[in-house]
Amino acid sequence: MLRRVVSVVVVSVLFGGGLVGCSADREAAERADPPATAAAPPASPSAPAIPAGSAPEQTFAVGVRQLRLNRDGDRPLPVTVWYPADGRAGGKPAREATAAAGRFPVVMFSHGLGGRPDDYDALLVSWAAAGFVVAAPTFPNTSRGAGDRNVLDVLNQPADVSYALTRVLALDARDGDPLRGRLATDRVAAAGHSAGGVTTLGLFTAGRDERLAAGIVFAGTALGVGTAFAGAAAPQLFVHGEADEVVRYAAGKAVYDKVPWPKAMLSLPDGDHGRALLRGEGAALRVVADTTTEFLRWTLYGDADAKERIPTAAARDDVATLDNHL
Known about the structure:
By secondary structure, the chain is of the alpha/beta class. The chain is built from 9 helices and 10 strands.
C-alpha cells in the first residue's frame, strides 16, 4: 500500500509541477512503482579537473548513424550519433559519412517526454560541427510513439544513459568501426531537455556516472532524482526560460542553487519551455547554441579562451542573461 502511495505522490508532483509539455497516461503511471535509488555520497567541492588544451577552430561536416542497443534485453535503446565528418562544412548530416581525423569528446543527450533525438537536431548538429560526438538515446517508455508511456520511467533513464555511454565509448576500440580511434573517451559530458534534464541531473546525483566531466540542463528539475550532487566536481550549465509554462523557472533555479560545483545559468526572459530550441531557429537558439558550445569547448577540450567567451556568447542579441560562477 505504501509503495502505491509513493507512486501516486511522485506522479502528482511530476504532472502538477509540469515536468514536460506532453500528455501522458496518468492512470498507467499511477500503477507503476518508482525504482529504488541508493543514497548518494556527498559531492566534492574541489575544483574540476579541466584538461589543458584547445578546441578545433574549424567547423566540420557532420555525419550521422544509428546504433541499435538494448539494456538488459528488455529496454531497447536506439541511439542516434552525430559526429564530425570529412567533407565540406554545412548542409545536412550525411549518413555513415567518414569520420574526420582527430579524437573528439562525447556528449550524451537525453530528450524530453514525448520527444525523440531528431527533434533537437539543430542544436545537436551544431555541437557535432564544432568537434563533438553527440549520442542521443531514444528512451523506451517516454519517447514519442512509445506504446506504454510512463513518466516514472524517467527515473530509470540515468542508467540507460550510462549503459549507452559504455557502448558508445567501446566503438573507439572496435575493429572496423567508423569511429575507431576517433573518440576522446576520457572527455565526456551529459545534457538533456525537460525530462531529459531530470535524467541528466540523475547522472550527477543518485546515479552519478564518474565518467562525466560536465552537464547541461535545459528546462530541467530534480524531481525524483534529488540534489545530492555526488563525486568529483563537474561544472554545470543550466538553460531556462523565465516564461516556461511547463517547468517553472523558479523550480529550475532552485536546483541550480544547490549545485556545489562551478556553474552558470543562462536565463531567457522571454523564453518558454523550449519551442525555439525545438524549432531550430531564431536568436534564442543561436545564443543557446553558442553559449553551450563554448561551455563544452572549455570543459571537454580544456580551452581557456572558450571559457572567457561564454559571457560574450550569452550576451549576444540581448535575449538572455548569465549568472556566471564558473
